[in-house]
Amino acid sequence: MIILLFVLIGAFIFIFLDKDKDKNIETSNNNTHIQTELNKDNVLSESNNSENNKDNQTKENKDIEIIYQNLEDKNISSNDSKIVKEIVEKFIIAYCSVSEGINPKTRLESVKSLMTTSLYDELNKIINVETDLATEYYVYRNINKIVVHTIEKIKGKIKVGVTVFSDYLNKDLSTQIEDAKQDYTITLVKKNNNMIIDSCIENFK
Known about the structure:
Elements (H helix, E strand, L loop, with lengths): L1 H61 L2 E4 L9 H19 L20 H17 L6 E15 L2 E13 L5 E17 L2 E10 L2
Parallel strand pairs: 1-2
Antiparallel strand pairs: 2-3, 3-4, 4-5
């Protein structure tokens, strides 16, 4: 009788432990499933954020109206003219834009290869002074419109006349000056068969 009682108790304990083991396995599987779903959500979230960033960058570029007036020099080939326009557009957007969340002193890094080393150093000095002297009222600059009104070849160099219309904003992103106009003369030369910016002059009237 005592032996039978021990057998029954042992069988009960075995069944209880076996059920508990199944519960642990089920819980572990559920946790694994939940973690897998969370990982999927994180991947999707990161992917969506990446796509949103790309969309935002595209929208920012689209917000800038770019006008190329038909005043090109007949001595400039259509291919050179196309290259000049692309270089000038990229350069002006990088040089003249001062956006929130971007270090203004390093904004020329993305277009460093489009200009001579001497011009890069010269413009960085100007940017450093402008940034250090910037007041709380004029902190950011948003470009509204770029007008390329002249492209001409003079003594082997290509000179481009550009007018930039911008809004100046304070530290709270409130517009202080709207659609301010600034003229630039950009000179490009060919070095090692590549077009490159040799000078950029702001024209003050």
